[in-house]
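Box S2. Input/output pair 1.
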Amino acid sequence: MVTPVRVIIALCLVAPFVAMLWVGSYAKTDPAFIGIPFFYWYQMLWVLISTALTVLAHRLWLRDQRGRRTPDGGAAK
């Protein structure tokens, strides 16, 4: 079943792939950050962003699954 929460989870998991596969958006050297060309620090920044988005997706998934439990403790069908 597609719910708004599951759409948000999917977007959190797809965003890093889209950002990294769109190489033309970051295939440049400027602006440099502490001497590191943009091409490299942008990718390293996405490592941190991807981690945060994956944690967020996981927490949303757990909350979604808890909300689907039936009163007797079983999973809703």
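Box S3. Input/output pair 2.
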Amino acid sequence: MRARGFTLLEILIAVVVLALGIIGGVALQLAALRTRHQAALLSQATQTATALAERMRANPKQAGIYLTLNYDALAEPAPAAPATLCAGAICGADQLALSDLYDAKLQVQRHLPAGRVLVCRDADLWSGGKLRWSCSGGAVAPLVVKVGWRGKRPDGTPQTDEDGQYLPGVALAVGAMP
């Protein structure tokens, strides 16, 4: 005589297989969301760095002013505006540089969680295959724009380098500037 239907053991095995599939799908979805978020941050950081680099190329005599930029959104949540904002106003090259720095600070503050932007002279952007915040350059090193944010690993711990600093997301060489 043949038994009809499913046994309790077969049903339990099917439920376990289904549960594992659902857990795997949820984990995959979370990884995709995390990756999408990181890609959006990287895109914003690239746009901010590129815009600042282009402004610096357009105003090369003010490299000294641009080199003063070292903004951390956690340390200064509301950046102070310069005396003159050059949007639609006539201003000198130095005022334009200060206005550019303020715009870069606003972009980082608004779009990158606990972001940072730095302009420095750096002859060696990469250390061990990773970007780093420290700048090793002297007067002849290229001008570099570095933009980053405090990222997290998949387990939720901060993503930091061996010095305990979070890693820059983007670093662009501005090019030949005095």
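Caption for Box S3: Residues 8-58 form the longest helix (51 residues). The chain has one domain: 9-175.
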